[in-house]
């Protein structure tokens, strides 16, 4: 695939094996190359964190047996037209200024080059940023040290066509104070040789959405389009997550603005069928799709790529793989499951050793039906993406929440009793579908896929069984099992191990769940303020003023400098304006003036000189009441304070009305803001300030 923007160069698209945990086997990697070739992908980046000689013992050369395996793997990649990119990660302990270290690095890569590898990568992710004393004497910054050794190695290897560099600050959230003002990224962009491509994960380590604007911003700093190292399907940070949703929330408009995309998927090999298949579909989206308003919540607005259609294509192909046997000797015989009580843990499956046929007066055999496409769609929706559940999972959570909160309607006849029973039946049917999916998955011929999935589907079935039994108990369908009240319940009835005990002891456990009570969005997008946001900011200001004091109208409230900033009468300082959005639109903002004195003079507002000397800057933060999570406001004010501090300001203050108890409480809990005295304040206003 050529670069769709210039028509020249290869658009890098494929898979990075870059997770923490057990690396894939050589056989699995060979199977990956076959899939990549079949689906039109062209790159494999070898970077397993737990390969000792990739990271921890990077100086050590490969032994003869290891070399033989790598030679075979590189050869297999070539056979399937896949570019094998060998990555090495020396950043844990390298001394950049020591010539022996550079020689060791070159020697290691020369060895891999002799294996037939022609593409390479240097990774400096997830390491300490502090240089040793020797490096501090030799280099002006950490970035300059990394760039010097990378440029040297790149030239030593003969300037390979594919040479990737992973910076230590590899996403927007790691950049201080911002992407555009990051000294580290600017040094990398200015000094890294132009033939070297740079890896980037997006706004975050695991990015919910990647916008065209964010890529344009980082491209300008790096002096080149990045290669996205996409962690949207990575699960190495949480052993209870499996991510089987489609590649999404990356508009196809990104394609001509990128050098490439590599997905770093689940640790388990076989469940990555969906992640890689849907990425391949996305990469093949036409580059001339035309202008469109890309809102990934409404995928039909992107004519080049539909995540749901891509998902169904992937699941259809995956079903065929499920039904193909991976056992020697041909297909497995039918598997019969013993019937089991609904409140008991499932028994082990028994393989029928003979074609037993029961007589009419005997129990009929219970045989699981073949796996269906609907089963795989349900599986995907139960294990969807890091920032959202699939449709069925959301519905089940909503129904269980409603049934629990209206439990009184289950036994006492009220106006909602009929609705409760109807919704309880709906929930029970959904739970039964999960159980049947589990049974059919357990009997799929391809056992290798099942073994990768088994812990996850057992876990979700156990949770569904408990929820199902709870709803039946609410509805009076039998008394609660004695097991529930025992001092020693069966272990499958609670989250186990030490991790579960820690979680139950923590006061805030569950506050980052995707499903909240009350129901609310779990995802917020914070972005820079632009002139088009003026009307929405004014609307939020009016709503907050109206809600702050029901006894007075907004026009009767005392004027504040922050009001003039919010209405647009005063313009915020550069890099000092942010807005936050949820699924319903803009829900808050944060604006700042690094030097408030000229602004106060402009609106004829007197501010004490003694205050301005110690606190020359002003900040205003407002979020709508529907935002009950304090994290967005905290994130915005931290970003603003960082920018204000970078401007040279020594302190900042904010103006608050006594009626705005919510924001007074917010600033108080930050810890750094304290109430101060200021002459000439309206009676209904207080000022809080923080030193920087």
From TrEMBL:
It holds the Pfam family NAGidase. Its EC number is 3.2.1.169. It is an enzyme of class 3 (hydrolase). GO terms for molecular function: [protein]-3-O-(N-acetyl-D-glucosaminyl)-L-serine/L-threonine O-N-acetyl-alpha-D-glucosaminase activity; beta-N-acetylglucosaminidase activity. InterPro entries: Acyl_CoA_acyltransferase, GH, Glycosyl_Hydrolase_84, O-GlcNAcase_cat. Keywords: Glycosidase, Hydrolase. One of its GO terms (biological process) is glycoprotein metabolic process. The keyword Isomerase does not apply. The keyword Hydrolase applies. Residues 323-363, 545-569 are annotated as: Disordered. Residues 11-287 form the GH84 domain. It comes from the Eukaryota. It catalyses: 3-O-(N-acetyl-beta-D-glucosaminyl)-L-seryl-[protein] + H2O = N-acetyl-D-glucosamine + L-seryl-[protein]; 3-O-(N-acetyl-beta-D-glucosaminyl)-L-threonyl-[protein] + H2O = L-threonyl-[protein] + N-acetyl-D-glucosamine. This is protein O-GlcNAcase.
């Amino acid at each position: 695939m050529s670069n769709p923007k210039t028509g020249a160069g290869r658009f890098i698209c494929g898979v990075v094996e870059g997770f923490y945990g057990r690396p894939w086997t050589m056989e699995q990697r060979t199977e990956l190359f076959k899939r990549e070739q079949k689906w039109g992908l062209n790159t494999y980046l070898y970077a397993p964190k737990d390969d000792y000689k990739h990271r921890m013992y990077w100086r050590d050369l490969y032994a003869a047996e290891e070399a033989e395996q790598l030679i075979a793997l590189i050869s297999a990649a070539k056979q399937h037209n896949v570019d094998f990119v060998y990555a090495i990660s020396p950043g844990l302990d390298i001394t950049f200024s020591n010539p022996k270290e550079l020689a060791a690095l070159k020697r290691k890569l020369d060895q891999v080059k002799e294996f037939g590898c022609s593409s390479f990568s240097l990774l400096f992710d997830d390491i300490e940023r502090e240089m040793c004393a020797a490096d501090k004497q030799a280099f002006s910054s950490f970035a300059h040290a990394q760039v010097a050794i990378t440029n040297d190695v790149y030239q030593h290897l003969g300037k390979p066509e594919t040479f990737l560099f992973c910076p230590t600050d590899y996403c927007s959230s790691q950049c201080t104070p911002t992407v555009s003002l990051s000294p580290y990224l600017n040094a990398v962009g200015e000094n890294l040789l132009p033939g070297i491509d740079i890896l980037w994960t997006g706004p975050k380590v695991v990015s919910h959405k990647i916008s065209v604007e964010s890529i344009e911003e980082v491209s300008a700093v790096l002096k080149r389009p990045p290669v996205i190292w996409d962690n949207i399907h990575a699960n190495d940070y949480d052993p209870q997550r499996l991510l089987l949703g489609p590649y999404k929330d990356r508009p196809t408009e990104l394609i001509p603005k990128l050098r490439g995309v590599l997905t770093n998927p689940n640790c388990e090999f076989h469940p990555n069928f969906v992640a890689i298949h849907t990425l391949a579909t996305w990469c093949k989206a036409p580059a001339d799709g035309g202008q469109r308003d890309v809102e990934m919540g409404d995928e039909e607005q992107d004519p080049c790529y539909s995540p749901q259609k891509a998902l169904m294509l992937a699941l259809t192909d995956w079903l065929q793989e499920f039904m193909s046997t991976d056992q020697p000797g041909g297909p497995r015989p039918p598997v019969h499951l013993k019937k089991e009580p609904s409140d008991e843990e499932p028994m082990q499956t028994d393989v029928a050793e003979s074609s037993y046929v029961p007589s009419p007066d005997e129990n009929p055999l219970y045989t699981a039906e073949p796996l269906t496409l609907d089963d795989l769609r349900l599986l995907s929706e139960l294990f969807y993406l890091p920032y959202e559940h699939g449709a069925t999972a959301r519905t089940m959570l909503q129904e269980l929440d409603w049934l629990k909160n209206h439990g009184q309607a289950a036994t006492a006849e009220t106006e909602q009793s009929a609705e409760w029973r109807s919704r309880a039946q709906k929930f029970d049917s959904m739970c039964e579908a999960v159980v049947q999916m589990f049974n059919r998955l357990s009997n799929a011929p391809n056992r290798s896929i099942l073994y990768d999935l088994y812990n996850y589907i057992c876990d979700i079935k156990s949770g569904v069984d408990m929820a199902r039994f709870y709803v039946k108990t609410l509805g009076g369908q039998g008394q609660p099992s004695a097991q529930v009240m025992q001092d020693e319940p069966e272990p499958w009835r609670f989250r186990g191990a030490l991790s579960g005990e820690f979680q139950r002891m923590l006061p805030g456990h569950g506050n980052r769940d995707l499903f909240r009570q009350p129901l609310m969005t779990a995802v917020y997008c914070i972005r820079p303020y632009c002139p088009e946001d003026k009307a929405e900011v004014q609307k939020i200001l009016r709503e907050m003023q109206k809600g702050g004091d029901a006894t007075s109208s907004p026009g009767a409230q005392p004027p504040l400098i922050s009001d003039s900033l919010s209405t647009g009468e005063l313009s915020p300082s550069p890099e000092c304006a942010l807005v936050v959005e949820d699924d319903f639109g803009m829900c808050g903002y944060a604006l700042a003036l690094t030097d408030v004195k000229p602004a106060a003079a402009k609106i004829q507002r007197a501010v004490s000189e003694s205050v301005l000397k110690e606190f020359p800057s002003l900040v205003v933060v407002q979020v709508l009441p529907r935002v009950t999570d304090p994290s967005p406001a905290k994130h915005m004010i931290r970003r603003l304070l960082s920018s204000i501090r970078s401007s040279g300001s020594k302190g900042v203050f904010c103006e608050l009305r006594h009626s705005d108890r919510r924001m007074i409480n917010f600033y108080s809990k930050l810890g750094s803001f304290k109430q101060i005295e200021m002459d000439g304040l309206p009676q209904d206003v207080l000022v809080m300030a923080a030193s920087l």
